[in-house]
Amino acid sequence: MKINVNSVKFKVDTKLDSFIRDKVEKLSTHYDNIISSDVILKLDSANTVDNKIVEIKIAIKGNDLFTKKQSNTFEEALDNATDALKKQLIKHKEKIKKL
Length: 99
Description:
This protein is α+β, with helices and mostly antiparallel strands. It has helices spanning 14-25, 74-98, and strands at 2-7, 34-43, 52-60, 63-71.
């Protein structure tokens, strides 16, 4: 699976980049036909505690799955986003089995 990590107006350090790639790579254990994934990291301009935003778009055959989560750390937002995508992948896999 091809994983693209993009950040808006800041540079991602190698530790966070490897954490992101590990978490997204684990999604392929739930659905093995993932073509690629795009991860976008943003900082919300509001001065709130939970100003870290993670968006993940996964390309699978015939469909795209997307989630956007916001939290006080990128790691926590990434955990929430991958959990949401895991549920979407399982639901999509079950839907395909019924066809």
